[in-house]
Design brief:
The chain has 616 residues and is an alpha/beta fold. It contains 22 helices and 28 strands. An eight-stranded mixed β-sheet has the order 7-6-5-3-4-8-9-20, sandwiched between helices. It is globular, with a radius of gyration of 25 Å. The relative contact order is 0.08. The N terminus is likely disordered.
């Protein structure tokens, strides 16, 4: 085990007196100096970067930009996976007075062009040759971009272009600028103001072109100072960085919160290696979108199906004991002495092994958000002894708006964060107000005026508040289904239960102005393929797997299990499988791996219509 792997005691450093991100960052660089800021894996070894080195590289990047002409208030974009260089570029940009803007690494060249143009970006950081090619394809239509910096020059050693510079060259330029102007950086950092625009976060574009949400330093600093309402803020915690850093959730957990907590971010090698990396790191804090939590659960569920009879019985007994403890606490009751003793035994014999298999044996905070999740899935993790809690917020309120206190209520997203107001409009829409509400959408005053009215952020989510202030989200306003019979149905509740199946990766319920509900299903390829192999079902690829009778019957059985939990009018009558294995590069999925309901309805219209023609 690494010498610094276990968290150290002591409260997190507070943020008073630092009213902008650069001021807070440089205060912490000075205070923490040689302590580990983050790690990345190189040649099989986790290698540490200190706060001192983090700060030095960020300063060199920022001064390099200043030398090349970056003016205060100009935009710098970053097009890269979740890598340490992203942070150097991010903190360097804001320290130099620029506005930092992330672009999803899965975006196409056309999308990159749109965001560079809409944001009026002056400089661009790209990860490697692949991302550089996207820019080169559209650069004639992006005349405002002065220079492009490449983090990884592999494959580009012979490439020569006046507009393109290696990241290391930028750092060298910045270091020389520091030597020539030793007081410049301090002046640039001190010149930042709380009310200034700090960063742009482009929405994932589920309902049209992405919109650039403008977040101020004040928005971010408020969230950093507010975070301990729901998230442990002790020094020395460990976390895994793997979601896109241009998403407000990962940016918050990997970049912003460690400015207060001092938590160590461990950069996953890739999204595919997350299960392996999380076992190696054994984080004390782990935030993930529901798709990741569903994947961990599915892996255990499939493993238990393959276990020996004794192994399956031991698991059922142990998880049953855990559920008893979880349900008692959810009901506000203290578990009995016998329950606690049995849980210790169950944990020793079974549950601890499961937690170690998914890297959750040291966890102190397990968070989920950014998309709906099945309450039964949260209960399963809590039965393991993993303190999973759901948080709710949006890009437009800079992250967290509500979260779970110690009293957990499944099916809700908790209570309002301190200094945050939540209310429900007469139409049932969730409204938010507080210092975290964004400055508006870049270049889109009309949409800004529709979204923020009298200081209240109109979230577009439908929900309700109970008598204790717990918020329940029903669905997105635009996603509510009204059947031909006039019945209002919230599809997300049905979809969440479908996704609890280890064989279903995602689902979209159809039925607006239709006689009954139908569904498009995206299978979990790994688990369904293994089921097919175990049952001698022949297939050659993803499409042929989806067309086998046995797989169609398997998904039908899973849907029928869910149908039993709903009224007859809310049950799925017909379904079809999406016969293409989708990734974040596909237009059907957002970068956070959510199916775009509107796009799916349009692209698969003939498939959907076919289900209703057959029933006519």
């Amino acid at each position: 085990m690494r010498d610094d792997a276990m968290p150290v005691s002591g409260q997190a450093i507070q943020v008073e007196g630092c009213d902008t991100i650069p001021k807070l960052f440089w205060h912490q660089v000075s205070a923490r100096d040689g302590r580990t800021a983050f790690r990345e894996k190189d040649l099989g070894i986790w290698r540490s970067t200190s706060w001192r080195d983090y700060g030095e590289r960020a300063r060199a990047a920022g001064l390099g930009l200043a030398k090349l002409g970056l003016a205060r208030g100009e935009v710098v974009s970053i097009l890269a996976e979740t890598v340490p260089e992203w942070l150097y570029a991010d903190m360097g940009t804001m320290g130099a007075g620029g506005i930092s803007n992330g672009i999803y690494p899965t975006d196409s060249a056309k999308q990159v062009e749109y965001i560079l143009s809409d944001s009026r970006s002056r400089f661009l950081f790209v990860e490697d040759e692949e991302q550089l090619d996207k820019f080169l394809e559209v650069r004639e239509r992006c005349p405002l971009v002065r220079k492009v910096f490449v983090f990884d020059m592999e494959g580009l050693s012979d490439f020569r272009d006046e507009q393109v510079m290696a990241f290391d060259e930028l750092l060298a330029l910045g270091r020389q600028h520091q030597t020539d102007h030793p007081r410049l950086w301090e002046k640039l950092v001190s010149g930042s103001r709380a009310e200034d625009l700090a960063l742009l976060v482009y929405t994932s574009g589920t309902t049209g072109p992405p919109k650039g949400a403008m977040l101020s330093h004040r928005n971010v600093i408020f969230q950093i100072s507010n975070a301990d309402a729901f998230i442990p803020m002790t020094m020395g915690g460990e976390q895994l960085a793997f979601l896109p850093l241009c998403h407000i959730a990962e940016r918050t957990f990997t970049v912003f919160l460690p400015l207060r907590s001092g938590a160590i971010a461990n950069f996953a090698e890739s999204v595919e290696t997350v299960p392996e990396n999380v076992r190696e790191v054994a984080p004390t804090s782990f935030f993930a979108v529901p798709r990741i939590w569903e994947r961990f659960y599915s892996g255990i569920a499939i493993r238990m199906k393959e276990a020996t009879w004794i192994g399956r019985m031991a698991y059922r007994w142990a998880i049953g004991v855990g559920l008893g403890i979880a349900e008692a606490r959810l009901d506000g009751r203290a578990p009995s002495t016998l329950q606690r003793l049995l849980f210790r035994l169950a944990d020793f014999m079974v549950l601890d092994n499961i937690k170690r298999a998914i890297g959750m044996h040291r966890i102190r905070f397990a968070g989920t958000g950014a998309a709906p999740i099945a309450p039964d899935l949260i209960k399963w993790y809590r039965a393991l002894g993993v303190d999973m809690r759901e948080v709710y917020g949006q890009t437009e309120n800079c992250g967290v708006a509500t979260g779970m206190p110690d009293c957990i209520k499944l099916g809700t997203v908790g209570i309002a964060a301190p200094r945050t107001e939540v209310r429900i409009s007469s139409e049932g829409e969730i409204l938010l107000r507080g210092p975290h509400v964004f400055m508006g959408y870049l270049n889109n005053p009309q949409k800004t005026a529709e979204t923020v009215r009298d200081g209240w952020l109109h979230t577009g989510d439908v929900g309700s508040l109970d008598n204790e202030g717990y918020l329940k989200i029903t669905d997105r306003m635009k996603d509510i289904i009204i059947t031909a019979g006039g019945k209002n149905i919230t599809p997300s509740e049905i979809e969440n239960q479908l996704k609890f199946s280890p064989y279903i990766s995602d689902a979209v319920v159809i039925g607006d102005r239709r006689k009954f509900l139908s569904c498009l299903v995206m299978i979990d390829y790994e688990n369904v393929a293994k089921h097919a192999q175990d049952n001698n079902v022949p297939f050659t690829d993803f499409t042929s797997l989806c067309r086998t009778r046995e797989v169609i019957e398997l998904i039908g059985t899973e849907i029928e299990k869910v149908n039993q939990n709903f009224a007859r009018v809310e049950t799925i009558k017909k379904f079809r499988l999406i016969e293409q294995q989708l990734t974040a590069e596909d237009e059907e999925l957002t970068p956070t791996m959510k199916l775009k309901r509107k796009f799916v309805n349009e692209k698969y219209k003939s498939l959907i219509d076919g289900m209703y023609v057959e029933a006519a």
